[in-house]
Specification:
Two copies of one chain form a homodimer. With 334 residues, the first copy, chain A, is of the alpha+beta class. Chain A has ten helices and 14 strands. The longest helix of chain A has 19 residues. The two termini of chain A are 34 Å apart.
Chain lengths: 334, 334
């Protein structure tokens, strides 16, 4: 935990004057000490590096904001209310301007989500030859769940509807545009870029779905892979209608191959994909309204195909033709 | 959280068949979901990189063991019982042999301390030119505290005794030996190296001290700096008797200048430094016996010196002469 002066810029923002439901009694100590209500909590951890998860040109404000957002998104997928987070950061050099921007973006979302920073650690990044590796960030976020509740990937049943929040593919399309591989329409690029730089974790929706969804995941690695996790953990298969998938408007302007790539395997959307029995449609729509978050029904859970190599996610076009999924999933070591 | 196959070696050890008091209901999900007793918890997070916190030649078993030990040591400083930890790890390449060794050492301590791995994330390290940065690890550990209790750095009062557990300086001396700067006696090097490679977190002692110690910190950055944190947070000063400081036997064979450097500013000891009123000496000795951990009284807390630049930590030799402290503290950016 915090031991050196290195962390002073971020330490200033530690919640001496705490906001939020969980307070730390150990600011500046080896541990944060928190009084907890009895009950269930959700915990997630994510590690991110500049150059791997962020473009080297990313604004520090956006890096700070998004580093927390992707963790809040994991809490959203469990239906948890964010309560506290812990930050470890490795920096290649002391760079107060960068750290100040990073902290600004981080604290903007921390305050907006009622999720205070209760502890952390800072260090210098490892060296490669004479050079220090770029900034590496690890965040652990914690949230509250009502007792006995919590969404997992394991509860989908044949007959359930498959739903997606918001729109998908925008973040990946913005990345392709920035890499010079694709060209998004000039007037639509900013909204796609905003999806990439400032993703919105769907915590209000996740919480509202606690009593209606049967399974849930956030879309970080692409709809195909993240829905695939639900299928695998629930031991089911899925029929998805491509024309129902809520593709981001900037992506709609591209070829169908590009749309498929962005929406199905692009990732970095931080929308929720979830399942629920058809009799819950009214509850789902209420949840969508109360959370101010659009949701779209894109298909149905079916029985798992018995063949061991069968593709459990089947994507159809409007004529019922099976579409070939773009290579799914993202493996950092591939 | 865990989303890719990358993590499969570690994921195997996730606690499907959980041991320990806290169980996760969300293995393989976006979050770990844990039912908690009402009460107080302690949380700490630490980030470590090969080449910065570990020698490039460190055995993966030792890296895994120590990465968890330093976090358990933070919990010990708060007096908390370890209950769960979360691991983020960035790897330069898929290296099953390394990861298998790392996991072996990590799980050895996890099982021994009753502190299960309940979640994690894996990714690839950032690149510098064509090369990937070395392994970077972030662990967040959580522990239980009785309600209303928990040790911090803030409670030391003038008149309190200053205590240290175990012996100090061994780890730093082993590092100097490995770097070829110092030469430790042949027969004493293994015990110093063991302190460096397999530090023992003092959780049993920390817990036993909950009702007697007034302030506590673990010695990660050297006695001078970590006791200094207590002095600063408690707004007091300290008189420490050098001849009472329990220097590791391998360090005793070195010159006094080397001994001072190893014991006062070396760090990486993971012993506890704590304070308590003299009337608690009996309780402290009972705690030491029940925790099977030796403790040594090394000095006394005094009133803070009023001069703004005064050295608040005063180290005396047996004749009462003030000793010059070696340059204290460790700043990764210095």
């Amino acid at each position: 935990m915090v031991q050196n002066g290195e962390f002073s810029i971020i330490e200033r923002y530690f919640t001496h004057d705490a906001f939020g439901a969980w307070r730390s009694k150990g600011v500046g100590d080896d541990c944060a000490i928190i009084d907890m209500p009895a009950g269930r909590i959700a915990v997630t951890t994510d590690m991110m590096a500049i150059g791997t998860h962020f473009l080297p040109s990313a604004r520090p404000e956006d890096v700070g904001y998004k580093a927390l957002a992707v963790n809040l998104s994991d809490l959203a997928a469990a239906g948890a209310v964010p309560r506290a987070f812990f930050l470890s950061i490795a920096l290649p050099a002391r760079d107060d301007a960068w750290l100040s921007g990073f902290t600004k973006g981080l604290m903007e979302l921390s305050l907006a989500s009622g999720c205070p920073l209760l502890g952390g650690d800072t260090t210098r990044t490892a060296t490669v030859g004479e050079a220090h590796a770029p900034v590496t960030i690890s965040i652990t976020a914690m949230g509250d769940l009502p007792s006995e509740m919590g969404l997992t990937r394991a509860g989908a049943r044949p007959g359930d509807d498959i739903w997606v929040s918001g729109s998908i593919g925008g973040s990946y399309a913005a990345l392709m545009h920035r890499w010079g591989k694709w060209t998004l329409p000039h007037e639509l690029f900013p909204s796609a870029a905003h999806r990439m730089d400032r993703p919105e974790a769907r915590n209000a929706l996740g919480t509202a779905l606690l009593s209606s969804a049967s399974a849930c995941a956030d879309i970080s690695d692409g709809l195909a892979q993240d829905l695939g996790h639900i299928l695998e953990r629930s031991q089911v298969a899925a029929d998805v209608q491509w024309e129902l998938v809520p593709v981001h408007p900037a992506v709609k302007a591209l070829s169908r191959a590009m749309q498929l790539e962005a929406a199905m395997s692009g990732g970095d959307d931080y929308e929720l994909v979830f399942t629920a029995p058809p009799e819950k449609r009214g509850l789902i729509e209420q949840a969508s309204i109360s959370a101010l978050t659009p949701v779209t029904r894109i298909g149905r859970i079916i029985e798992k195909a018995p063949e061991p190599d069968a593709e459990q996610l089947r994507l159809h076009d409007e004529r019922g033709e099976l579409l070939l999924l773009p290579s799914t999933g993202f493996d950092h070591f591939a």
